[in-house]
Amino acid sequence: MLVMATGGLFDKSENSKDPYVYIDVNPETNLCYTFSGHVSLDPTICLIGSQNLPFGINSPMFNALQHKFPFFYPQQPSMGRFMYTLLNVQYIAGVLKSNSKKNPKGDVYFVDFIQEILAGVSKATGGYNEFRVVPDDDTRCVRIFDDKRIVAPLKETDNSPYTVIPVMGKDSLAYSFNYTSKISPNAATMIVISSQAEPTGANMPDDALAFSKLRQGLTNRLAAVRVDSTDNGTDDKVATPEERANAQKDKDSRFIELRDLIKGIYNGIGGVQTEGEVKENEIAKKEIERLNNSRSMGGI
Q1: How do beta strands 22-23 and 141-146 pair?
Q2: 10 Å Cβ neighbour count for 290?
């Protein structure tokens, strides 16, 4: 809305103020993928009022965010209203400034500007979304699509919100259908490396790696027994009870650290620090060191 109001082109003929290029900001038409516990870990970029916070965290600020900007549909929790994403204005200004420096004239290209913002939002919310800007030449309308969005009916009578073109069958116009595929060198390398992996351990089920099925029945005579990286060298077959307890404690501490981070973010007291906050903390740290040094000198 800010981009359309400050940098948009308007048709002012016949006393109308319709934008020549309309940016669709309707939360009911800009849908994305979401899930229970989908949150932002970087408040310097964005915040979302998803279905709930993970780890059973309760936050008054998050509850208010849910009420004013409900990100998810109660009837379809897997569908999210992307336009109810709260963006940090300082983050937008920073992206605008960085894009203006890329052009000698200081011009900012709309698609590059919006796409960089979308990439930041996707990164802050866990990388589960693949947003892209989609222009419609017929209606001069710009929308934001999520390529990872779970397709769900917009109405109870509709099976899909998109037009379906039948490829095969009696409703299709195709006489025949075939396809060919080639394995690129990069894909071949990935298959070889993945097929040698051993998906064991509590965090790696048997089907965690798709290509690991290719190694069934094969044994490495040079390394018949391998330890999964997720076990941190404390496989149940060789680790002592004390080592297993320490490994579980380290694992729990990572979850506790993540829980405290999310709790602080949605209570307004945590999250990634801004450049100003980092500088202030450095100045305060130096001041504390100076006072400690002066006290030690006085004691001597």
Answers
A1: parallel
A2: 10
